[in-house]
Design brief:
GO terms for molecular function: cyclic-guanylate-specific phosphodiesterase activity. Pfam families: EAL. This is Signal transduction protein. Helices cover about 35% and strands about 25% of the residues. It has about 325 residues and is α/β, with parallel strands linked by helices. The protein folds into 2 domains: about 90 residues, no CATH class; about 220 residues, Alpha-Beta Barrel (TIM Barrel).
């Protein structure tokens, strides 16, 4: 079994026979495994199969802080590598999910985004799906977070999306690609592989819109702004998703000033007859207009919603009314 560095993607072969090394000072009270060697700083427990290693990790995981780091030694103790207890435990407990991420076994389903003025196609959003397992994207991202593989998943999902743009979307039409800001530590360095992919597939940077998706509270607005600025400096555009829900607030819209803002679908449903939704949408439109930001409404399902949004001044629309995500994206909207 191979495990990969959560930061750089370097692959390390997990030995079938080896040892677990634990910091003695921090873990001695909780470490319940047989001790085969110890010194002033370390406790070493040998294992003779990966199933035995999994059992050992289960004990460590249950008895100690899962965020602690351990070392895995090979059989002759000549090589080692550090890894977070929870990350290794989750990867060994769910090898089928880890394999999907390691192999990059993904495909992009593309959902059309239209000009509300005439329903011509402006571009598509890339939505991640797996090719080898019946796993929901939500479950896969949840596992990746627990297993320390969210950076790798985010990188490989971006590659699948860029490849889909190259193979299936016309030049000049846009692709919206989701990204997790928590996986980007130093934008100038961490985004190099993304820019290299764009060159590899010969994509015009102006056709790519990176859409921030984050379920956790945005605590470092300056860092996210730095990510946006790095994308923009490369000629790409950025979007803030789900405005009106969670932590994607109107305040964030003002602070970050993305190129596009996507309004959460909860405000789109029955917007033609819900006064509260209409007031919020008008506030978004006014603020976006002030900063020169394009507005996109997600989750449009009826003609009445689309008609009201167009009359209110929303630029773009997306939803089942126009088309569902598909591996073979529709080239024309037929209502």
């Amino acid at each position: 079994m191979a495990v990969d560095c959560q930061f750089c993607g370097t692959s390390v072969l997990l030995p079938d026979t080896g040892a677990v090394v634990v910091n003695k000072q921090r873990e001695q009270s909780a470490f319940q495994l047989p001790v085969h060697y110890e010194d002033q700083d370390r406790i070493i427990h040998n294992y003779h199969s990966q199933s035995q290693l999994l059992e050992s990790l289960h004990i460590i995981f249950q008895k100690s802080n899962p965020n602690e780091w351990i070392h895995i030694l090979n059989k002759d103790h000549s090589q080692s590598f550090p890894i977070n207890v929870q990350h290794l435990y989750e990867r060994m407990k769910h090898p089928e999910l880890a394999s999907v991420i390691y192999k990059g076994a993904f495909k992009s389903h593309l959902q059309p985004i239209v000009y509300l003025e005439d329903y011509n196609i402006f571009g598509y959003e890339s939505l991640l799906r797996t090719t080898t397992a019946n796993v929901s994207p939500g479950d896969l991202f949840s596992f990746a977070h627990n297993a320390g593989l969210h950076s790798m998943l985010d990188q490989k999902a971006r590659r699948a999306a860029v490849q889909a743009k190259s193979e299936q979307i016309d030049q000049g039409q846009k692709i919206f690609i989701n990204f997790l800001p928590s996986t980007i530590y130093v934008p100038e360095f961490c985004l190099k592989h993304t820019f290299q992919m764009v060159k590899e597939f010969d994509i015009d940077p102006k056709d790519i819109i990176f859409e921030v998706v984050e379920t956790e509270k945005i605590t470092d607005v300056n860092h996210l702004k730095s990510i946006f600025d790095t994308y923009k400096a490369s000629g790409m555009k950025v979007a803030l998703d789900d405005v009106g829900a969670g932590f994607s607030t109107l305040e964030m819209l003002t602070l970050l000033q993305p190129d596009y803002v996507k309004i959460d679908r909860s405000y789109i449903q029955d917007c033609h007859q819900n006064l509260e939704h209409q007031n919020f949408l008008k506030e978004v439109i006014n603020r976006a207009t002030h900063f020169g930001i394009y507005v996109l409404a997600e989750g449009i399902e009826t003609k009445e919603e689309a008609d009201w949004l167009r009359s209110a001044g929303i630029h773009f629309g997306q939803g089942y009314y126009f088309g569902k995500p598909s591996t073979n994206p529709q080239k024309k909207i037929t209502l």
